[in-house]
């Protein structure tokens, strides 16, 4: 009996740690699902006029409507679409009357020319967004190739002389080759269920190995 005490304690302690990690991931899953539900509710709410004062965190995903005219300038941000391939997000300035903001017009395939924005006054709806797409490894924009590698709202605003406000178009006129890429929750990772299953599986394997080890102690192999 003494020979199995230490392996038994070690096995039960290890399994308890693994089960606690799995339980924590289940709790994180519940939390993440609530966060995603809140974001989806905010995205799909009725659009409002763009507020005069904005806070990037508080007003992220705010659905808005804006009427104004496009500027001729634009930025191409390298992107891709599943099943379609590489292309660009097209970012243009938009004058809404004494104020210029950024519009993410949508996606254009790499092989297609970027059409000029609609002329005259147009009304757009979409969501405000301040995406976090840059880090220390993100290359700087390449002016020779006319390519940006991420949507950096402050930097794009400085380049196009606008307020640091990005409206991601959901509806409203544009060229036929420009496909809107509305704000959604698809890109927000939620892998907690897989993590939980992994920890619980490891706990089951750990207990099985512990049981087998204890069985071998109590039933040693007999020599020939």
Automatic annotation (TrEMBL):
Pfam families, alphabetized: SURF1
Cellular component, GO annotation: plasma membrane
Keywords: Cell membrane, Membrane, Transmembrane, Transmembrane helix
Primary residence: membrane
Subcellular location: Cell membrane; Membrane
UniProt topology in membrane: Multi-pass membrane protein
Regions that span the bilayer: 196-215
PROSITE patterns attached to this UniProt entry: SURF1 (PS50895)
Entry annotated with the keyword Protease: no
Family according to the record: Belongs to the SURF1 family.
Protein name in the entry: SURF1-like protein
Species the sequence originates in: Litorivita pollutaquae
Highest classification ranks of the organism: Bacteria, Pseudomonadati, Pseudomonadota, Alphaproteobacteria, Rhodobacterales
């Amino acid at each position: 009996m003494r020979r199995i005490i230490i392996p038994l304690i070690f096995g039960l302690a290890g399994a308890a740690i693994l089960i606690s990690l799995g339980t924590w991931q289940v709790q994180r899953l519940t939390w993440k699902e609530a966060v995603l539900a809140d974001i989806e509710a905010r995205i799909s709410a009725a659009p409002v006029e763009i507020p005069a004062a904005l806070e990037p965190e508080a007003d992220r995903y705010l659905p808005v409507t804006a009427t104004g005219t496009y500027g001729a300038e634009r930025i191409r941000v390298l992107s891709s679409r599943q099943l379609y391939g590489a292309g660009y997000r097209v970012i243009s300035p938009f004058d809404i009357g004494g104020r210029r903001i950024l519009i993410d017009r949508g996606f254009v395939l790499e092989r297609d020319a970027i059409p000029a924005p609609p002329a005259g006054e147009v009304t757009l709806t979409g969501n405000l967004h301040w995406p976090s797409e840059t880090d220390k490894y993100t290359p700087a924009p390449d002016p020779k190739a006319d390519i940006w590698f991420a949507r950096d709202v402050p930097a794009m605003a400085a380049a196009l002389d606008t307020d640091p406000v990005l409206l991601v178009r959901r509806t409203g006129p544009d060229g036929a080759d420009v496909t809107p890429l509305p704000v959604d929750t698809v890109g927000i990772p939620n892998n907690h269920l897989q993590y939980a299953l992994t920890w619980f599986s490891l706990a089951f394997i750990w207990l099985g190995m512990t049981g087998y080890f204890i069985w071998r102690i109590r039933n040693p192999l007999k020599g020939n």
